[in-house]
Amino acid sequence: MRYAILSDVHGNVESLVQALSRTRSDDVIVCLGDVVGYGPNPNEVVAILRDRARHAVLGNHDLAALEGFGVEHFNEAARAAIQWTQEVLDQPARAWLNLLPYELRFPEFLLVHGAPVAYFEYILDKQDAAAAFDRTDAPIIFVGHTHIAQYWTRDADGAIGHKHMQGGGSLEMHTDRRYIVDVGSVGQPRDLNPQASFVLYEPSLRRIEWLRYDYSIEEVQRKMRAAGLPRYLVDRLSRGR
Ligand code: ZN
Predict the structure, then answer these.
(1) Which residues are in the CB-under-5-Å shell of ion ligand 1?
(2) For the stretch 131-147, what's the b/e string if a residue is b when 16 or more beta carbons lie within 10 angstroms of its beta carbon?
(3) Cα(120) to centroid of ligand 1, in Å?
(4) Other CB atoms closer than 10 Å to residue 211's CB: what's the count?
(5) What is the pLDDT of residue 162?
(6) Cα angle at 101 between 99 and 105, to 5 degrees?
(7) Which of the residues 85, 93, 160, 201 could staple to 126 if both were Cys, CB 3.0 to 4.6 A apart?
(8) Distance (Å) from CA 45 to ligand 1 centroid
């Protein structure tokens, strides 16, 4: 069995379709939240993931779109995008988002949007990673939220390691280490590579691969302009930050 784990699609249907075209029909599709917000096609993205994703958890932008949760912490552009998303989000999309859990636990791994227990915290440095490892006993923790493709390790004596996966690449996991796997973002990468990111996970090989791939950024930007979404959000897609 192989998993394709995607996060932070943010209403970017062009990139989602490209990501799924790189999966096999028997891959288990997993979504780590922030399905909507920022991008111009929230309903289309929800419709595809409702159909294709076997497992999905809730992101902070999903919750903000549903009930305004946390928008006071958003910057002006993010808030404007959420307001637009709230206006266009249809009833079937709301109903699906409303039922997403904050976490899903499997024997070998945990799925959360940002971090274990504190679901919308960011894991950005070794201290954050150590705290996250302490809050769960899951051997592998899959996260998104930062829009940065990277991973963290903790070995038997507690030492924390870290690596960015800005150009993609793979990881062979050791049984005596734990891992936090940040899958990066399908819809709005922020690690200075505008190529989108998701991971393939093969449990039998203990192997993770980060795929970085192209999609039509110009088409998404054209739609965002037509929808009147903030210029800052349009521009950052081509810069990847
Ligand atoms: Zn996000």
Answers:
(1) 8, 34
(2) ebbeebebebbbbbbbb
(3) 10
(4) 22
(5) 98
(6) 145
(7) 160
(8) 14
Burial of 72 (0-12, 13-18, 19+ CB in 10 A): exposed
State how far the Cα of 107 lies from the Cα of 62, in Å rounded to an integer.
26
CB 38 within 8 A of CB 81: yes
Rounded to the nearest angstrom, the distance between the alpha carbon of 60 and the centre of ligand 1 is 7
Q: Which fold, 3-239?
A: Purple Acid Phosphatase; chain A, domain 2 (3.60.21)
pLDDT averaged over every residue in the chain: 97
Instruction: Work out the average pLDDT over 51-61.
Output: 98
Question: In the block, which residue shows the tokens 């809730």?
Answer: 58
What is the C-alpha to C-alpha distance for residues 97 and 50, in angstroms, rounded to an integer? 9
Q: What are the structural domain ranges in the chain?
A: 3-239
Q: The dihedral of CA 13, 18, 24, 25: what is its sign?
A: positive
- 203-240 pLDDT, tens digit per residue, is 999 999 999 999 999 999 999 999 999 999 999 999 99
pLDDT of residue 31: 98
Instruction: Dump pLDDT digits (tens) for 185-207.
Output: 999 999 999 999 999 999 999 99
49: nearest Cα among 147, 59, 83? 59
- Cα(33) to ligand 1 centroid in Å equals 8
Instruction: Say what the pLDDT of residue 201 is.
Output: 98
Query: At how many degrees (to 10) do helices 13-21 and 42-52 cross?
Result: 30
